[in-house]
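Z., the sequence and structure:
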Amino acid sequence: MATERRQKVLLGLLAVVLVAVAIYQLWPATSAAPPASSNRQAVATRGTGRAEQAASAQGAPDVHLEALEAEKPKPTGTDRNLFRYKPKAPPPPPPTPPPAADPVVTAPPVVPSGPPPPAPPPPIPLKFIGIMGPDNGKIAVLSDSKGPPISAKEGELVLGQYRVLKIGVESVEVAYADGRGRVTLRLSGQP
């Protein structure tokens, strides 16, 4: 029963606060001066008292109609840029014609003779998953994404054709068994 009473009291307080906020928002502001229409008027009325502001707000603004009928200045340049803060750069000098030169004779490209170089070995399809064991006996865990994970120490063969050369903290160096195609595999799985 005490919780019901507490809820009713809180609900009543909330209703009173909401009514007070609504009255404050909807109540007409009589003492507030109208907003200034320009910076000049705001600067001019900044130093005056409240009585002078009320008097100037009630009077008609000073309008110079003859200034509207006066002749307006004509634009002088056609390439005016309102956003340029630097003076216009001088035009570039006219291009000078290149001096007449003797025709250059180019030699034909040199074609290598002999057998083509051997093709590079195919990429190593292993991914570095992680490290097992203590610091002095690190074991790299590798995957070829076809079978179960493979573990190997430095110098061991993996799948009979790849050799683990070095095991680091976040990478493993692997090469083919004959030493070709040395690759560093990162822990993220990217070579």
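The mean pLDDT is 79. The chain has four helices and seven strands.

Let me know what you think.
H.
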